[in-house]
Amino acid sequence: MDGSWYSLLPSLLAIVFAILTRRVILALLGGVLLANGLFYAPDLLSAFLGSVVSLSSALVDPGNMQIWAFTLIIGALFGVLEGGGTFGHFVAALERRRLGNSPRKARLFTWFLGVAVFIESNVSIMTSGTTSRPLYDRLGMSREKLAYLIDSTCAPICILIPLNAWGAFNLGLISAQDIANPLLTFAQSLLFNFYAILAILLALWVAWSGWSIGPMRKADRRALKQAEQNAEATTQPQLASADYNSAAARSVMLSLLSMIVLVPLMLLITGNGSIVQGAGTTSVLVAVSCALGLAVLGARVSLKTSWRRLGWHALQGARKILPLAIILWLAMVLGDMTRMLGTASFITSLIDDSFPVWVLLPTTFILAALTAFAIGSSWGTFAIMLPLAIPLALSLGLPPAPFIAAAISGGIFGDHASPISDTTILASLAAGTEHIDHVRTQLPYALLAAFGTILLYLTYGLWVM
Questions:
Q1: What is the DSSP string of 265-312?
Q2: In contact, 316 and 83? CB cutoff 8 Å
Q3: Which of 42, 158, 368, 462 has the most CB atoms at less than 10 Å from its CB?
Q4: b/e per residue, 171-194, with b = 16+ CB within 10 A?
């Protein structure tokens, strides 16, 4: 079973079933059960017990428990900001400064936030999604487009400006290979990271033009119709100019800025002075906890919102996020099981030095994309593909930087397109949209950027290699 095509079945089952039925939790649970069935075959009792153990172990893992806490606290933060009343004043402040008075400005604002917060991808997603969502609702733009914009800027920008844990992780993998100057080679590879570059540029074009293709058109029409219906049903503005409270708006800004500032600060503290060696999950957990505390205090002080109401909205926000937390939990378990089955080993075994040189880069990209799509993890793909791609380049006397970039680009694309990816799930969470709706509306854009990437790697291979 190890390294055979059968190892692809659990991920394929989960992905296809989720897309066809929209029952993501059941699809992922079925994938976990099938993965354990294949791993322990033909012992069905062991397969059942293995499923229970894998699910419970992931649930109570100390590192994962920080992720669950972070996810639920983000939900509570949404609940307090929206239900506590301060977010309406924050949106009014943005509109007064003409940052959110038109769909184009709102989309560009989202894109800019996604690019600017490059220290940590999760914080980038949450900050952009939390800040932009009420603007999109008010302007009649779909939350699916919001999810696409934040998902298309977080991981790509983190890999292109690697002054973060992403850079440290990949630099460590590259340093383990026989390369004279790992840092310089990694820096050179950024110029060949075509998918990340194209994804960000395509997102910028969509932000500027509002371009919609495929299922995104239907989502945009639905959002615009809903906004028109809400406008007809509302006889008075939601927030009259005379009722504007600048203190409430500042409290939201303070809460959001605290996330941005505290993450690098905590990374420095937990990394003993090195931001790239810091504990990412712990840093994010501290940052969102402080943001929640500031949001509660801001609503209480500026709007005199009762403690009971704030507590209720915090719990309601966490409850709304719970299904996505369960999806994230099951996706992580399925990813662990696919690695135990040797899914990545089977995919990477398809490439060797017998390929024509000019197709090696696009082949590396495609295999990395398939790996990331199947296991739902870009970092896991980096760990698998870089030790394969770098020796392959060195054995053929070719520069390793383009091969490093092809492996990383493929990992970013596969993770971007996969329904079981943690960043895809978090983008759905931050935008407040159905997860499968986000996957289906984002996929055409991701495929377009991937197609351009393959053409660029083919062109480079034909003309240079």
A1: HHHHHHTTT-GGGS-HHHHHHHHHHHHHHHHHHHHHHHH---HHHHHH
A2: yes
A3: 368
A4: bebbeebebeebeebbebbbebbb
> Is the pLDDT at 284 greater than 90, yes or no?
no
According to DSSP, residue 41 is labeled T
- Whether residue 423 contacts residue 154, with contact meaning beta carbons closer than 8 Å, is answered with yes
What backbone torsions phi and psi does residue 178 show, to the nearest 5 degrees?
A: -85, 70
Three-state SS at 147: helix
Question: Any idea what DSSP says for residue 98?
Answer: T
Using an 8 Å Cβ cutoff, are 279 and 126 in contact?
no
Q: Give the Cα separation of 152 and 173 in Å (integer).
A: 24
User: How many CB atoms sit inside 10 A of residue 357's CB?
Assistant: 12
- Residue 314 makes CB contacts below 8 A (sequence gap 6+) with 76, 79, 80, 292, 296
- Report CA-CA distances (Å) from 318 to 58, 116, 314, 325, 450: 20, 27, 6, 10, 35
Q: Write the pLDDT tens digit of every residue in 85-103.
A: 787 777 677 667 766 678 9
As a whole number of angstroms, the distance between CA 106 and CA 408 comes to 30
Angle of CA points 112, 141, 240, to nearest 5°: 90
Output DSSP code: residue 8: G
| N- to C-terminal Cα separation, the chain | 37
Residue whose structure tokens are 């099951």 = 330
The secondary structure of 224-239, three-state, reads HHHHHHHHHHCCCCCC
Among the ranges given (195-204, 291-300, 402-411), the one the predictor scored with the smallest mean pLDDT: 291-300
Judge whether 365 and 195 are in contact, CB under 8 Å. Answer: yes
Give the span between the Cα atoms of 359 and 362, in whole angstroms.
6
Using CA atoms, how far residue 40 sits from 1, 12, 13, 45, 47, in Å, is 10, 19, 18, 9, 5
Nearest to 305 by CA among 254, 259, 251, 258: 251
Both structure tokens of 307: 């403690």
Q: Which two tokens stand for residue 33?
A: 């059960």
Residue 154 identity (one-letter amino acid): C
Rg (CA), the chain: 23
The DSSP H or E segment spanning 255 is helix 246-270
Helical axes 307-341 vs 360-375, angle rounded to 10°: 130
What is the C-alpha separation between 34 and 399, in angstroms, rounded? 41
pLDDT, average across residues 69-74: 80
Token pair for 91: 């949106």
DSSP state of 358: G
The structure tokens listed for 193 are 């990271």
Closest CA to 247 of 90, 127, 81: 90
